[in-house]
Amino acid sequence: MREALSGGCSSSQCGSSDKPDSMPEEIWAKIKDHPCYSEEAHHYFARMHVAVAPACNIQCNYCNRKYDCANESRPGVVSEKLTPDQAQRKVITVANEVPQLSVLGIAGPGDACYDWKKTRETFGLISADIPDIKLCLSTNGLALPDHVDEIASMNIDHVTITINMVDPEIGVQIYPWIFYKNRRWTGLDASKILHERQMLGLEMLTERGILTKINSVMIPGVNDTHLLEVNRVVKEKGAFLHNIMPLISDPAHGTHYGLTGQRGPTPAELKALQDQLEGGAKLMRHCRQCRADAVGLLGEDRGQEFTLDQLAENVAYDPSRRVNYQTLVAEMRGEHEAAKRAASESLVDVQQAPSALVAIATKGGGRINQHFGHATEFQIYEISTHGIKFVGHRKTEQYCKGGWGEDATLDGVIAALEGVSAVLCGKIGDCPKESLAAAGIVATDDYALEWIEEGIGHWYEQVNGQQEQRQSA
Ligand code: CLF
Ligand code: SF4
């Protein structure tokens, strides 16, 4: 299981590299390098999950135990379950080779609090070796209240609780059973117990100053409209961020929802709900629904580079690459922030232009720096005369493989970019550019290597400047 809710990140506050005035210093220190709790940090910093917690104490209708925890993972078998010792070797190896690494998460493939001994041992081993790594866990909340004091004493600063309902009647449609106090509970009794434990766990974490994110899986016709109430309640109880995750449902996954035809939301339905929630608990919009063994920046997965058979038996932590990278990022973030401010200020000169969605191809670092044909996802920004904000991402199949682009793949990319006005990328060839133009999407590499917001602002000024000239001609 893993995350979601109030106080955090998709807002301009958490997207800033400058500490927001209203945010206490100690909270800023906790989120500024966490790729999930800060939208801006996800351009620079990576997380890794270690799959040490396979056991779970509830059944969700969107989960098949053969697969990753659907609450935070895209469906797919976890490559390897690890013992705490194996996890220790893996984290040290990754820390030596991936300088962006800032967070270690335990997010299943079962429940990190139910499988608590392994979670605790793993965090203990790794924080002794790499004291500055942030510890993060994700849970369904049922066993959470039993471990909050230990969580606090171990400096686990970030906890995600998956909360899909605050009304047990709705929970009945999501959870067929739970295992609690040595027996199995079903129906409304199960749902009530889970709800009460989730609320208690959230309150206990809030009392101790631990940042909580609430993950909610959006299930059309089951809890979609109810998530407004979930957002209100978790905000009231002190959640820091709310992450609305679209249900992933496919008969091939063997889940109850997959087999009974329960559909997930469309991107437009997800965005409409997120827009409705603006002003409530703060939203995370940059979640990638990672695997329980994901490694790397959000949106990339380098897990296959670090399988057990590739790890050395004895490996010692060398902090040099991470320290050098952190110094470099501190400098870059200042520049990035200045570019963002300049882009916002330049919008004042653009008169009465409509808002637009812009897709960005990026390899990270906050810049427009990826070849169109290499992108497996595009980051989506909304620009209007009021500002530029990150609103989500769209996954696609990579268009260019082995030096050739496939027409069928391009059709899929164009479909994924529905509603988008422009694609800004590091490089693009004439063929895809023409196909995108025929679909009404401008694609350009004119802003290659610019900061993302800077490039979007320049594109918007240019397009609307041209329109103004046409209107006055
Ligand atoms: Fe992992 Fe979750 Fe910690 Fe992040 S993921 S345990 S808070 S370190 Fe992040 Fe992945 Fe979304 Fe989770 S993008 S699924 S929100
Ligand atoms: Fe699956 Fe996570 Fe639900 Fe357990 S809590 S059933 S692992 S989705």
TrEMBL record:
Functional pathway: Cofactor biosynthesis; Fe-Mo cofactor biosynthesis
Domain Radical SAM core: 42-291
Keyword set includes Iron-sulfur: yes
Region (Disordered): 1-21
Cofactor: [4Fe-4S] cluster
CDD domains registered for this protein in UniProt: NifB (cd00852), Radical_SAM (cd01335)
Biased composition (Low complexity): 1-17
Pfam families: Nitro_FeMo-Co, Radical_SAM
Keywords on record: 4Fe-4S, Iron, Iron-sulfur, Lyase, Metal-binding, Nitrogen fixation, S-adenosyl-L-methionine
Function: Involved in the biosynthesis of the iron-molybdenum cofactor (FeMo-co or M-cluster) found in the dinitrogenase enzyme of the nitrogenase complex in nitrogen-fixing microorganisms. NifB catalyzes the crucial step of radical SAM-dependent carbide insertion that occurs concomitant with the insertion of a 9th sulfur and the rearrangement/coupling of two [4Fe-4S] clusters into a [8Fe-9S-C] cluster, the precursor to the M-cluster.
Family affiliation: Belongs to the radical SAM superfamily. NifB family.
Name of protein: FeMo cofactor biosynthesis protein NifB
Species of the source: Acetobacter lambici
Source taxonomy: Bacteria, Pseudomonadati, Pseudomonadota, Alphaproteobacteria, Acetobacterales
